[in-house]
Write a structure and sequence with these properties.
Layout (H helix, E strand, L loop, with lengths): L4 E6 L3 H18 L2 E6 L19 H11 L5 E5 L11 E5 L8 E5 L13 E3 L3 H10 L4 E3 L5 H9 L5 E5 H6 L8 E2 L14 E6 L5 H4 L5 H16 L7 E8 L3 E9 L6 E9 L4 H16 L4
Parallel strand pairs: 1-2, 1-3, 6-7, 6-8
Antiparallel strand pairs: 3-10, 4-10, 5-8, 5-9, 11-12, 12-13
Helix pairs in contact: 7-8
The structure holds ligand PBG.
The ligand NCc1[nH]cc(CCC(=O)O)c1CC(=O)O binds next to strand 8 and helix 5.
């Protein structure tokens, strides 16, 4: 650490900067320390990489983790859904701040919902999970791969390149674009990505301020994310696996919905399980995720 300023590593996209800015404000409030954002360009930001060869797993997070391990920054802020399951030695997700809306959002040119879209409408998404669920709900829709940041994707709807696009509601809201949302899609129709809407605040385990920053952690958000990410791990998902997992918390119990699809959404498995929470809540969440993953894989 340099003096009393914590350096916060972030990707340079508008969304990443907005998210890191939120976390910076929370850290300043909780610790009294000053913070400074340090933008880091990652492999995942390179839009020249064609869709046919997606960036390597964890491309958004890998470089950020490298600079964190190297001590060039004190904190890294990630969209939790972009973080690979495998832990990095010496690093710890010290805090999961209160999670935003997990759902996916439809942004349509006509301002209408998914079921009201005209037959054969073009819907933009490059996510196999979103494409599979949309195709299942509306086999007539034409799925158009679109990439780029949130603004680019919203612009493609405005410009009529596509009739609609599906994005994470949390990203739109954090960029002040919540008014563009025409439908918050029911998680039973489109199961959100594991940890969608949650942020991961990562630090070196031995960092002198790790315990202080850990105060930002929201235990309920952590519980849900742990269950959802256990599904990711259990099905050995890569970033091209069409896997959704969505956990709901009702005080004394956890409910978990998960869905695994082939790329056209034809073959799919949908699982819903619930567990009562005991004294070991994180253990219960982990076991729920494991059971759901095993069912998805047809082993239970
Ligand atoms: N894969 C990109 C990505 N990573 C996190 C978010 C949104 C914010 C979040 O889920 O926390 C997005 C954009 C999107 O899916 O529309």
């Amino acid at each position: 650490m340099r003096g009393r300023t914590l350096l916060i590593g972030t990707r340079a996209s508008a969304l990443a900067m907005a998210q890191s800015g939120l976390v910076a404000a929370m850290i300043e409030k909780a610790t009294g320390l000053a913070t400074e954002l340090v933008s880091v360009r990652t492999e995942g930001d390179d839009v020249r990489i064609p869709l046919s060869s997606p960036p390597r797993p964890g491309a958004f997070a890998a470089r950020l983790r490298d600079v964190l391990v190297a001590g060039e920054v004190d904190v890294a802020v990630h969209s939790f859904k972009d973080l690979p399951f495998a832990p990095v030695e010496g690093l710890s997700v010290v805090a999961i701040p209160p999670r935003a809306v997990a759902r996916d959002a439809l942004v349509s040119r006509a301002g209408i919902g998914l079921d009201a879209l005209a037959e054969g409408s073009r819907v933009g998404t490059s996510s196999p999970r979103r494409a599979a669920a949309l195709t299942r709900r509306r086999p007539d829709l034409r799925i158009v791969p679109i990439r780029g940041n949130v603004d680019t994707r919203v612009r493609k709807v405005r410009d009529g390149v596509v009739d609609a696009a599906v994005l994470a509601a949390a990203g739109l809201n954090r960029l002040g674009r919540g008014a563009e949302i025409t439908e918050l899609i029911d998680p039973a129709v489109l199961v959100p990505a594991p940890a969608q809407g949650a942020l991961a605040v990562e630090m070196r385990c031995d960092h002198p301020w790790a315990a202080a920053v850990a105060h930002l952690d929201d235990p309920d958000s952590r519980l849900r994310v742990v269950a959802e990410r256990q599904v990711l791990s259990g099905v050995q998902a890569t970033c091209t696996t069409a896997i959704g997992a969505y956990c709901q918390f009702t005080g004394s119990s956890l409910g978990l919905i998960a869905e695994l699809s082939d790329h056209r959404g034809v073959e799919h498995a949908h699982v819903e399980l619930r567990t009562t929470l005991g004294d070991d809540r994180l253990g219960d969440a982990t076991r729920l995720g494991e059971r759901v993953a095993a069912k998805l894989m047809g082993r239970a």
